[in-house]
Amino acid sequence: MLYFAKKSAQVIAIVISIACLLLPMASTGQETVNIKQFNQVIEQVEQLKKTDLVRSLKQLTVYEKVLTALTIEQNLIYFKLLAEIQIEQNKYSSAKKTANQGLTIAKRLSSPSILISELLYLKGFAFESLGYIAQARKEYKKGLEVAESLHNKVQVALGLINLGAIAYLTDDFKRSLVLLNDAYNIAGQTDDEELKGTVNSELGIVYSYLLQDEQSMVYYQQSYLHFKKAGMILSAHTSLYNIAINHIRNNDYQQAITVFNTIIAESNKDSPSDSMYSVYSGMAWAYQQKVDSNPEAAYRYLLMAKQYLQATEKLDYQLQFYYDQAYMLYKLDRFDDALVSLSQVEKTLANNQGLSLIKKENYVYLIELKAGIYYKLAQFQHAFQTLSQVIILTDKLYENEDNRSIAQVRLKLEGEQADKRNKILHHKKDLYNENLRAATLANEEQRFYLIISALVALAFAWVLVKLLQSQHKLKVAANVDTLTGVANRRSLMKQAQQAFNFTQVKQDNLTILLIDIDHFKDINDCLGHSTGDKVLAKVAYIGTNMMRKSDLFGRFGSEVFMVCLPKTRLKSALEISERIRSAVSQHSWPFNKLEKVSVSIGVATLADDKDLISLIKRADEQLYQAKASGRNKVCG
């Protein structure tokens, strides 16, 4: 018995020892299987995160406990995907931390990896979304340097897109267009639908800032198609949102509501809170601004937007919500509640010195709304003091506006487009010359036909150049008054309508001046039409030189000029008008029997006008008043 007991004990000990050896091996074997499946799972996560963020995150985080068994490259892929998902979920602080973890591991690499560039971009976007623009720009630049060193076209384009976005966020529209157009050209050389969707979306935003709504809409629609082709439903919804906002800018509120409803119908529990906040907030504005305005419905949609507000880390959204809420409460005559909403945001905005022009404008709107509320509450002293603050802030806001003139950007765009056409012609010429050198002529007959073909090609190129020149001349002729060199009535009305639409959406100021040359018929009758034409041209020259580059000056009719002054209140407009009147009156005219020319000016600032024609009509009434009171006067 003792022998068998000992023998049994020995057998049991051996079995236990073998089991102890086998268990780690089994565990290690299980980890090996998981690691081997890593690349396959990553591909699934890449596809799944386009439509289902929760499931993609669940599949990815299975590897959280075995990261030490993965290679450095696999770790970087893990942290990159995790940061991307967190950004889609609007968890920007978490995404910044995750990207940092990946970048720390990347220091162990023996050579640079394109994953470093991607992680830097993700970290930069997290900073940008949290409002830290300077830090975002720094990360984007570092990411672009890595991408350029590795000659990776897609990542270079993404870096240019990121920096282009930073440029328009800081009001540098010229630089933004240069960067984004470079990215657009690179994207066109790839098959990356996501990249094409992204750059089209960003170009749409810039053109929207530049009030070129038709061009903006084209880019938004292209971005939507590219994202749909890439299977990126959430990104496609962002493009639809931008399309809806474009409809709002053009006062097509019902169409905007239709697009918003499409997004809401296709959304699910994974739809980012930032996106859903924007959609419901946009829906609220559409109901508020449409012809048959419905303030109650607008406020209900704004409260629906509020439920997504707590899930976002974007300070801009929180500030915008309280401003929107104050405005809509004001429209509902709930003035005390509106003041409470304004107090939530006013202090934060007032202390922030790094605001872009657009955010500074919003600050002015906020103070102006506050003045309106005080007026409604019959607190006239408070209303006067607050309105005085608005005037001071507005003067500061636009004192350096000429440095980033939208008109200059548009002019640069036209130049760039002409350069692109020239490059295409040069490219075709080089291609033709190359083919010509490569061709071998078998006999004189081939040489003869080749010469004829070359002559035909050159003739075609000459005709093409002439057509382009003619088109340019036609474009200028269609928009410029040939006598005075300023915008003609057609161009003037089109641009003024765009400014009016933008002003309506932004709840901004807009002023119209109508300038009439006094006794112009007498000048024509007594001194001749050639002298009258010279007077017209000189008055146009004097007036144009007194305009800011954002202002519109054009010939409205015979001897009448119209000026459209965006973001200008009545007081400033009257001062500008007086300067124009005085300059014309004091000008020395080099014509016999013409000692003095004067102008009468009517001024009207946007109030309750439903359309541009109504505003112009009020300016015309003021012009009539100026003429009736003796001419050479300004009335407004």
Automatic annotation (TrEMBL):
Family annotation (InterPro entries): Diguanylate_Cyclase (IPR050469), GGDEF_dom (IPR000160), Nucleotide_cyclase (IPR029787), Rev_trsase/Diguanyl_cyclase (IPR043128), TPR-like_helical_dom_sf (IPR011990), TPR_rpt (IPR019734)
Enzyme class of the recorded protein, top EC level: transferase
Signal peptide extent: 1-29
GO molecular function: diguanylate cyclase activity
Protein's organism: Colwellia marinimaniae
Keyword terms, alphabetized: Membrane, Nucleotidyltransferase, Signal, Transferase, Transmembrane, Transmembrane helix
Catalytic activity: 2 GTP = 3',3'-c-di-GMP + 2 diphosphate
PROSITE patterns: GGDEF, PROKAR_LIPOPROTEIN
Name of a matching Pfam family: GGDEF
Protein name: diguanylate cyclase
Enzyme Commission number(s) of this protein: 2.7.7.65
This protein's record includes keyword DNA-binding: no
Transmembrane annotation, as ranges: 448-465
CDD domains documented for this protein: GGDEF (cd01949)
Domain GGDEF: from-to ranges: 508-636
